[in-house]
Amino acid sequence: MRGVSLGIAAILFAGLAIGALDERLRLPEVVHLLGLCLFVYSVGLSSGPGFLDTLRRHGARNGALVTMALVAAAVVAWLGGRLLGVDAGSAAGLFAGGVTNTPALAAVLELLRGHGTLAGEAVQSAPVVAYSVSYPLGVVIPILAIALVPRFLRGEVPNDARTSHSWPAASRERAGSGGLIVGTMQVTRDDAIGISLEALMREAGGRVQPGRVRRVDGKVELATNGTVLALGDLVTAVGEARDVARLVDRLGERSTEMINLDRRELDVRRIFVSNARVAGHSLRDLDLIQQYGAIVTAIRRGDADWIPDGNTVLQLGDRVRVLTRRENLPAISAFLGDSYRAVSEFDVLSFAFGIVVGIGVGLIPFPLPGGLTVRLGLAGGPLVVAMFLGALGRTGPFVWGIPYGVSLTLRELGLLLFFAGIGTRSGYASWAALHEPSTLGIMAVGAAVSLASAATLLMAGRYLFKVPEGVLEGMIAGVHTQPAALSAALSQRLDDTPNVGYAAVFPLATVLKLIFAQLITRM
């Protein structure tokens, strides 16, 4: 362990400290409400495409795991609140802090603000106190759980990066992104001759993107799904080491020749997608191989890298690895945009329109059994609408997505405003509450909340659903919506599988936390 940083959440504690100095040192309420909308809407736009993709493939499994983990956390928070004798709002704050989820806390505060009681300020400060006390433990416990996974789980799925084929370090570097490599293989198996490359990749399994083929006569051409190979051909493919090794086994043997370094005919360029007319369209719709004789072999979005297919939708700010003939590079660069300046801009009109629609959706009451009603509120409405619009990509001339760098900036700005707002408004009451003897009990319950969710997910994921170890570690971080935990998971593995688990559960976990936090507040 190399220490734990609270990150931007430290602003909450700074705001609490400032607010504790004087009851009048508080920011206007609109500050944290604006920050909340910016944060959840930006998160939703970036999570939407990945959420729908994982929902189609493992939706039932992921939904069951997330629900089980958060139900366990909610029950512990509610029972702990009853044992401590605190109000329902404080119990909901314990839940939000234990699972380190700011939108859930915001939903609780919004619900309490709508009650309009005479003790409104005290009532709204109590959840913030519980949240601030339990939050640090909610950061540390998932990290500890992830660190202990390899030590306590037996018979785990082998590390995805381990393979019988040893790839040189240059292969990884030449891929230009994350854990992807460029592998060269030679066709030596008779049963690989005369079969399309698409069929061969399907038989091999895994996910790779072929690059180029050098025929026996020395001719170099693009390797497409319809390419038919002959004995002695050399083929390059981009993918994770494990998946490239599977294709090697299907075709024949690995070659030490790195034909991808020969750029006399085919060349590679990494291009930024900055053209709004391109964003929101799938690679199949763009049909780059027909228009420009080009194929996209890898995509980098933020810090994540993956192999695309025809259904992959490009977003503003994507960095795509394009393989084509040298003379076609200027044209394909102009088509995709390749402008740093354009990537830093976004459509303010569509962004603002989406937030307004999200606020409207958040005001709609949804009836639940027992006469209860739940509103998604400012924390949930913009999130759900943004996830839908992010998955949609575009509507006619309107591009709903925003560049990844802009999204990160808006998220940080939103969290800054939210934490500063609620911190200064709750600091005075928080300082008074910290002198209460119940503070240690609140910390204990907060730790139990975080432990309950992590342990439930770990046990159910491993022994009930047989989730691979790396994916399960990412799920623990995703259920707690905790980037620090994700970083810890990635640091102890040789592959990027924790990213898969994190992206699979993050959006659903955020929505369910909003619902459970409001249910606890009403009980």
What is the tally of helical segments?
Answer: 19
Give the end-to-end Cα distance, rounded to a whole number of Å. 39 Å
CATH C-level class of one domain: Alpha Beta
The biggest beta sheet reads: 5 strands, antiparallel
Q: What structural category do the secondary elements indicate?
A: alpha+beta
Within CATH, the superfamily of one domain carries the name: Regulator of K+ conductance, C-terminal domain
Proportion of β residues? 5-15%
Strand order of the largest sheet: 3-2-4-1-5
Compute the average pLDDT. Answer: 79
The CATH architecture of one domain would be 2-Layer Sandwich
Shape: elongated
- The CATH topology of one domain, please? Alpha-Beta Plaits
Q: Runs with pLDDT <50, length 5+?
A: 154-165, 169-177
Number of strands: 13
The helix fraction, in percent, is 55-70%
Give a quick summary of the entry.
The chain is built from 19 helices and 13 strands. It is an alpha+beta fold.
In words, what does this structure look like?
By secondary structure, the protein is α+β, with helices and mostly antiparallel strands. It has a domain at 169-341: Regulator of K+ conductance, C-terminal domain (Alpha-Beta Plaits), CATH 3.30.70. The protein contains 19 helices and 13 strands. Helix 7 (197-204) packs across helix 8 and helix 14 (377-392) runs antiparallel to helix 19 (497-522). The longest helix has 56 residues, at 29-84. The model is unreliable at 154-165 and 169-177 (pLDDT under 50).
